[in-house]
Each structure stands twice: as C-alpha cells, then as structure tokens.
Design goal:
The protein is mainly alpha-helical and 212 residues long. It is built from nine helices and three strands; from the N terminus they run αββαβααααααα. The chain has one domain: Methane Monooxygenase Hydroxylase, Chain G, domain 1, CATH 1.20.58.
Length: 212
C-alpha cells in the first residue's frame, strides 16, 4: 500500500524546505514589526482592513507572518522593520543560559529552533547572541531528550514530550523508534537494524552540499 504523504524533513539553518509541512507551519508564525513606509493593498492580508484594496499607513505596528516579513524585508528600502519575539530577547537568553531544561519550549513557540534560525535572515545586531543561544539550548536539552526516549519503552510518553518544540519531538520519536527496533532485533524479530531516516536524510544533504 502506498502512503498518501511521505514526510519531508524541515530545512537546515536559514533555508526552508517548502515540501515540509513543519516548515510551512513554521513560516506562518508571526513577527512583531512596523511599517516603515505605506503598504498598499496589504491591510486585508494582515487583518487590518475590510477591503482587499486597503493600505497600511506608514508607522503602523504589525504582526507579520514570517514568510511575508522575509519577502518585504529590504535593508536598503526600509519597507518594514521587525522586532525580536520575546523568547529570543536578552532576558530570555539569560534564562536559557542558566538552565535551558526548565523552559517549556512548546508553549513559548513550537518551532523555537527553526523560527530562531530564520530570524538570522534579518539585520539585527543581536544575531550572534541569538545563534549562540539556540545552539547552546539544543546542546543542553539534547541529552535529556534522548535519555528520556531510551528509557520509556511501551509507556505513555505524552508527559515527556509536552514541553518539547517540534524538532525535539522528532528527535524523541527517532530515539523511540531506535529503541523499539533494537528490542525487536534483540528478540530475534528483525534480521537487522536499519539506519534512522533522519540520519539518512541528513547524510544525503551533506553529500548534496559537497557536490554543489
């Protein structure tokens, strides 16, 4: 039987993969911003007008979907300016540096890593600090996530994943699948252990980058 949809992994770093449902959903996350010039016929799109021809006046505060913010952002023409969501600001970066494991990433933003990586597309003097915090947060939380996935066999895992962002949930699922596959192999129910699809896809990307 053929599957109706074959899952596609999200893009890496600054690039999105628009065949990935996760990236499509992540691109709908909104950024606070400001119109630096009048924006013709965009009021309805941004929920600030009743007609499709309404414009947004210069200086208006905005909540802009990521995909549109990237399209409008131009450092030379100053069409819009964007602000950092609070979870990426200095106050929260301090919390992450103290103990990243205490933060409910799914509540604060289900695409913390992917969305944060996309913010680096915008000219912001805090970009180096944002990138460093994202990396260190992932490193700090990774071991606990994988330990949890390896120690929960045939159990209800909902309480373990509720505070994880979508990337972390995918890692947890991969860890769970690896554990189940190993258990099956150990019991003689499988002839060999297969490589994780996440590892396979990452390897293919690395080879593609090298060929380019």
């Amino acid at each position: 039987m053929c599957e109706a949809y074959f899952p596609v992994d999200p893009g890496l770093g600054l690039e999105e993969n628009f065949l990935s449902l996760d990236d499509i959903l992540m691109s709908q996350e909104k950024l606070p911003g400001r119109a630096e010039s009048a924006l013709p016929r965009l009021a309805f799109v941004l929920g600030q007008g009743v007609g499709t021809g309404d414009s947004i006046p210069e200086g208006s505060k905005l909540e802009i979907p990521l995909w549109l913010a990237k399209g409008l952002h131009d450092s030379k023409r100053r069409i819009i300016s964007v602000e950092l969501p609070k979870i990426y600001k200095e106050a929260w970066r301090t919390v992450f540096s103290a103990d990243a494991n205490v933060v409910d990433l799914h509540k604060m933003g289900p695409y913390y890593y992917g969305f944060g990586s996309q913010l680096l597309n915008f000219d912001n003097p805090e970009n180096p600090e944002i990138a460093q915090t994202i990396l260190q947060t992932f490193i700090s939380r990774f071991r606990r996530i994988m330990d949890s996935s390896q120690n929960a066999y045939n159990e209800d895992t909902s309480a373990l994943v509720v505070r994880l962002d979508e990337l972390e949930r995918a890692l947890f699922r991969a860890g769970q699948k690896g554990l189940i596959d190993f258990q099956c192999w150990e019991k003689g129910q499988a002839s060999q252990i297969t490589m994780s699809s996440m590892v396979q896809n990452y390897g293919k990307r690395k080879f593609t980058d090298m060929d380019g």
